[in-house]
Amino acid sequence: MRIEVDTSSGGERLDALLAGPLGSRARAQRLIAAGQVTVNGEVAAKSSKPVAGSLIEIDESDLRKMRADDGPAADFRIAYEDDSLLVVDKPAGVVVHPARGHSTGTLVQALAGRAGGGDDPERPGIVHRLDRDTSGLLVVARDEATHRALRAAMSKREVTREYLALVNGRPTARTGTIDAPIGRDRRNRTKVSLDTDRPRSAVTHFEIEQTLPESTLLRVTLDTGRTHQIRAHLEAIGLPVVGDQTYGDGPSYGLERQFLHAARLRFKHPSGDSEVDVVSQLPPDLSDALKAAGSSL
């Protein structure tokens, strides 16, 4: 791989400059430390600042080895793709980005070289995330301008995120809104809840899709996107998500994870030319659980 430094990138640290093309700043630093990156024919330090017109060369064979060393590639499907962004359909069990206990096999690593933008070099292109055991759609930027535009759209609540959640019990009304700040639980640090010292605003809307003998299928939309928001909010009103081992009663209807699926993602394309509207069908494990709960769908 060869990169000629343009005037906009001249004077930028080498590891930061290569974070986009290589997928993450950490991967760039590993390649630089291994001596696989040269600037004008000379091995360079990660803190060096190539000037405009410099020629950077990367040993791509070593890059492929390092990608293999990152562990098994995460499984995913591309539901929509263009030059600016991707909409990924993530299966349950895949972690979006590296975190404590999950250093390999993440979606970010599988998307290396295809995503970019944002302040965190370990999370290039990530605009929002899904829990490991939540399946469905999330949008990923491919460049800085798109990342900024999508983050702004999220903040302005211009991105529609719809989830399907099977819950134990039944709401008292067909539609409802849960407007309740949440944060790290005071007593259980692995959970978020309303019982917190650091509450952050959180708003969740729901409507009934189907009533079943002992459970209810809800369509849920978010105004905010806090960690575990849907799961914590539904537990708070006495409607825990089926199969949820943290906020509910654990395995049920043959499920080994929570019945929560990001089913639809709709937003105006950052270019302003069109609307992106993508739908994801329930994966087999959730379809089977729904039938076990008594659904004829």
Write the layout of secondary structure elements.
Elements: E1 2-4, H1 14-22, H2 25-33, E2 37-39, E3 42-43, E4 55-58, H3 60-69, E5 77-81, E6 85-90, H4 107-110, E7 135-141, H5 144-155, E8 160-168, E9 175-179, E10 183-184, E11 192-193, E12 203-211, E13 215-222, H6 229-236, E14 260-268, E15 275-279, H7 284-292
Parallel strand pairs: 7-14
Antiparallel strand pairs: 1-4, 2-3, 2-4, 5-6, 6-7, 8-13, 8-14, 9-12, 10-11, 12-13, 14-15
Helix pairs in contact: 1-2
Structure report:
- The chain has 297 residues and is of the alpha+beta class.
- It has three domains: 1-69, RNA-binding S4 domain (Structural Genomics Hypothetical 15.5 Kd Protein In mrcA-pckA Intergenic Region, Chain A, Roll); 71-156, 2-Layer Sandwich (Pseudouridine synthase), CATH 3.30.2350.10; 157-262 and 286-292, Pseudouridine synthase, CATH 3.30.2350.10.
- It has helices spanning 14-22, 25-33, 60-69, 107-110, 144-155, 229-236, 284-292, and strands spanning 2-4, 37-39, 42-43, 55-58, 77-81, 85-90, 135-141, 160-168, 175-179, 183-184, 192-193, 203-211, 215-222, 260-268, 275-279.
- The longest helix is centred in the middle third of the chain and has 12 residues, at 144-155.
- The termini are far apart.
